[in-house]
Design a protein that fits this description.
The chain is of the alpha+beta class. The chain is built from 2 helices and 9 strands. The chain is 21% helix and 34% strand. About 8% of the residues have low confidence.
């Protein structure tokens, strides 16, 4: 009976060490406050490689409200125009959190039970920004929805 228990423990250990498979798909999202605007795209291939882009506009608090629409259009254009140049990269994934290889800081958070993805953006010394992403079949021309 003892050898059987050891085999079971060994198998359980191997299973717990297996790599989690990242969710393949496409997501997009936006973030906007009085002073910051971000448009984001994220794609995870079936090979687990990640493409991400998140152009931003910072320190825009003094911008009149009637100019915000053109700023959103600018970011949407930057996002779409630069997407072809984004290089897929490997990320460590533990089943919930994506990190740069060997890194500590979360880059993306995936809640499988809710099918919800967040992109974590770091701007200077500010606290991280978690952008809720929505899954899409194809990327839109304007992730701001307008």
């Amino acid at each position: 009976m003892r050898p059987l228990a050891l085999i079971f423990l060994a198998a359980l250990t191997l299973l717990s060490c297996s790599r989690a498979t990242p969710p393949a798909g496409k997501w997009e999202g936006t973030y906007e406050t009085d002073d910051t605007m971000i448009a984001a795209r994220l794609e995870i291939g079936t090979d687990g490689l990640v493409k991400v882009s998140a152009p931003d506009l910072l320190n825009i608090g003094a911008t009149p409200a009637d100019q915000r629409g053109s700023m959103r259009e600018q970011l949407a254009g930057d996002l779409a125009g630069g997407w072809g140049d984004v290089v897929p990269r490997k990320m460590d994934f533990d089943g919930e959190t994506f990190r740069k290889p060997g890194g500590i800081a979360p880059q993306m958070i995936w809640k499988a039970s809710k099918k919800q993805m967040w992109l974590v953006v770091y701007i200077g010394t500010q606290p991280s920004i978690r952008i809720p992403m929505r899954e899409v079949g194809d990327f839109s021309d304007n992730p701001f929805g307008g």
